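Typical record is below.
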Amino acid sequence: MRGWLAKSAPISIALCLFVPNLPTRSEETLWRKSVNEAKQLRAQGRYVEAERLHLLAQAEAEKFGPEDRRLALSLNELAVLYHSRGQLTEAEPLYRRSLAIWEKGSEPLEVATLLNNLTRLCLDQERYEEVEFPAKRALAILQSLGPNNPAVANSLNNLADLHAIRRRYSEAEPLYRQASTILEKAVGPEHPEVAYGLNHLGKLYYREARYAEAEALHRRAIATLQKTPGQMDAVLASSLNDLADLVVDQGRNTEAEALYQQAQTIWERVLGPEHPNVALCLGNRARFYKKQGWLAEAEPLYQQALAIWEKTQGPEHLNVGNGLGNLDSFTWCRDAIWKRSHCSNAHSEFRQEKLEPSIPTWQQLSMLWQLSVELRAATRKRSVSSGELSRPEKGSLDNSNLQWQPSRVTWLRSAACWAD
């Protein structure tokens, strides 16, 4: 379950947002003070306090009139807060209202900013068909203002993300590189905004099996973001999670477990314990534990991830289907053993001797899981046409269709140890 954007939510959400300069008229003191303090609190991760001040700033700005640019800026700032916390439904109407005000005022930079923010929102909501038009419109506006404007990089990254999601990697890579070049020249190579593009370019390299390059980019992004704690913590968590995916595939298990836990801790603090990004990390950790045979540790994580996805995204969401598939795969060991054993002669003989076998311990299940992995790997080397191996249909979640015939007798013999 390694989505491109930390999906099951926003894994890099609204984090490269450029906000217009604030007005400086003396009568705007309370409004301006509220906006500035709210932004500082947001950068420190103090989101509840930041929301209160953003709402106060919006209330003050409403007094200036329904088409005042101070209101537009306040709406955008509040939307950025909601977006960065994964509250996408609350963010969208604020973005759209702000955009309508800026468009009436013919403010090209601000219009492009809002278009980029809406593009990011559509990406995070997986509404990919709505991404390309606003992204290209924002890019055209910004390039007309200057091709090296830092905001151009935001548009390029958005378009690159869309190409990467659609697996058009050759189109995505030059956009990521161009965005990084622009930002490094504008704000320096150690600026946290640069880390966003580095992380996503690292994802792309991982998909292309360019593992050494991917790891170097993820580590550079993490090092940069750790120098500015609180500013882009969601991107830091995404980078940690992505690096964990990479190192676990290389067998560096201790490091992978620590990285997953760090990512989960950050996401829980920034987004809350029931955010889809937290579920993504729980699922990754569960998959990692299952691979090690640590079934007692894996099962509750699979269940927690599935519960979060069902609650936050609804029972019909793709992530819920993936979560059900993961949990079903996990429980196949126990289910398959008992379903087959109850209808086999070997089990009948076993019951005559033992009467009621006890429930297997997690240690015993772990042993059996590892055995099943070895057996399935061995049987894959044989010809399916020989009749020795019956494979389930791809995508099937029906445990009763899973028939690994060569391992059946071994499963039943191993089951006998449960009653000892």
The chain is about 70% helix and 0% strand. Residues 330-380+395-419 form one domain.
